[in-house]
Amino acid sequence: MQYSAKVMDHFENPRNVGVLEDANAIGEVGNPRCGDIMKITMRINEETDVVEDINFQTFGCGAAIAVSSILTEMVKGKTLEDALKVGNTDVVSELDGLPAVKVHCSVLGEEGVAAAAKYYYERHPEKTPPASLAEKIARLAALDVHEEGS
Ligand code: FES
Hints:
By secondary structure, the protein is of the alpha+beta class. The chain is built from six helices and three strands. The chain has one domain (5-141): Alpha-Beta Complex (Sufe protein. Chain: A). A three-stranded antiparallel sheet has the order 1-2-3. Helix 1 crosses helix 2, helix 2 packs across helix 5 (103-122) and helix 5 (103-122) packs across helix 6 (131-142). The longest helix is centred in the last third of the chain and has 20 residues, at 103-122. 37% of the residues are buried. FE2/S2 (inorganic) cluster (FES) is lined by residues 31, 34, 36, 60-61, 63-64, 105, 108. Residues 31, 34, 36, 60-61, 63-64, 105, 108 line the site of FE2/S2 (inorganic) cluster.
């Protein structure tokens, strides 16, 4: 199986690893097919909804670790609305590709950010979540990541 140099770099030197102590957005997701788990913690500026910091902890395959690592770099500094626009295909292209059998691993990152955003908005009922959040959660739930070869 061929991995790009970028995947290998993020796997061997993952960025933003750990759990943020002062997180106000927490998402924990799993891939039921392989049992891998990802926890995303973010600190969101409550005035501007900008992702000021983001960490991840992934118990999973190398592709999932590389995905989580590059995703944290892509999301940091964006508003939550823009962070939710980062999809798994953006992550895969930023990593210079993933082997086809590993593309399902890239969905985990997108799900983690969506779960953390959901957590944040549930605790801020005064804020209106972007419409893309509900759409993304529904789309991700409908994806069959369990299927062999997905
Ligand atoms: S094999 Fe489980 S996320 Fe990659």
